[in-house]
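Internal tracking record. Fields below are filled automatically when a chain is submitted to the structure queue. Please do not edit lines marked as system-generated. If the sequence contains nonstandard residues, flag them in the REMARKS field before resubmitting.
Queue: standard
Priority: normal
Entity type: single polypeptide chain
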Amino acid sequence: MSQHTRTDRQVNFAQEEPMTVGEKVSHRMDQFREMVSSGCCSCASRCPSVAIVLVLALVLLGILAAIPLTLMLTSSAQKMSTDSSDLSSHSIRNPKFWPKTDKIHFDDLGGIPMTSLFPPNVSTCSGFGFACTGAVHMVISSSKRCDGFKDCQDGSDEENCKECQSVFSCRSHVEEDSKKKRKTKVQPTLICLTSERLCNGVQDCPDNSDESVCKSACSKDEFKCSGNNACLPLNAKCNGVTDCADGSDEKNCDKCQPGAHKCGKQCVKASQVCDGVAQCADKSDEEQCDCKTCSGSDKALCDDGTCLMRSQVCDGKKDCSNGMDEENCPGTCMIESLSKKTKLVKCADGNSYTEVEACSGVIESCEQNCPTCHPKLTFTCPASGAAQKKCIRRSKVCDGVFDCDDGADEKDCTPVKECGIENSSQFTCDRKCLAASRRCDGVWDCEDKSDEKNCQQCPAGSVKCAVDNKCLPAFTRCNGVAECSDGSDEQKCSCEECLGTHSNTYMCNESNRCLKRDEVCSPYSMCPNATYTDKAFCAALVLKNSGRFPY
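SYSTEM-GENERATED OUTPUT FOLLOWS
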């Protein structure tokens, strides 16, 4: 027998061919679709895999795009929050011969306070006075602390008082039984009351002591106002505070209480002494002050002891006896001899003006205060009998109105109907007849200034507008008002022309240009090539006037 041949049965499997890239992508998308459908959304199994992947891609792109956009918006919001208000809409001039407004943002000031624009010798008495709890930038004078009047908006100046400057005080808390009292050196907190809150039927003190001072008879160290049952301490007399309704406690004072100031037979109360506002005619209540008495966020102290309101410093008017409140201010010149050379005249309105402008007839309140009238620009009303000497501007002469007390300005006037116009010896304007010599003489004789127009030449001492052929009075040079159409009368101004002649001008820091002080900010500095000081002066002024800038 032949050997049995065994046949092994073998099963052969077809070999798998490798997948292409497209098949791999399709396979992965199918897997992702199955994961989505099983995980969160069963309806995804009915959607094409490609659609699901596209949606996912769009979501990712949206997230990536949102990141830089968010950063940009955040940065912009921060800039807007710190940037200042744009005040360009407040610009009132259409600059023709004036410079364009030059903005300075409030944050560019770097927190620059008005005090940094003050003369170095004017003290703001920082560290003195009482800072209101609810608004620490508001500091009131020490003399107003615990005086019975609420000077802080939140009334914090009348809280936690250990001593009172008012006529009456009581403890703010009623003490318990004496056995429970503990010996302590801590002073009790007081409530400070003025006389009007005594015996008024309203209990202000916890122990009702403000109503228990009502007596029919007072002790020897007390006094009573007529019509009032309250017995007041003797030191309430002549303290400057009217405690009696008829004011009898402040009449005929030969001596004032400590802290008060004597003016004749009257006393100025302590809170009004050295408060920057003169109560006495001789202003003695604002002299010999120190930082304790002249303290407060709206006060300033001269080195000579004169107390001023903070707004009086660098306002163009000299209030300190030596004028140092106007030295080295924005808009002033750094010439020490200028203030010594400039002669001032105090006029009827209480202000001081330079003698040049005061006696040129341009300021009516100065007509009777000038020692000598300008011989060319004014007409001198003679003093005779009850009539007083006056300096009136020449355009008022022969205008039909008596400006002199005796009518001297309307005497010897040629009637218009008799005016010698035909032979050119005279001319008319404003219904008056003037000599031909008054034309183009550098003085405005006509109210419309027509007598100084169309001039071929101008006399010495006057200003000539070359473009307009006009003659201007000498005082108009560098007064801050451009009379010439090309502004030449306001160009290349010297310090003496600007501030030595005029009292209400601002000298631009570096451009030799003078502006009217009340027009230099509109609200940005109108100075050509304004410096940082010019800009800061206007920016701080806007903040101050809007109440946003604490002293």
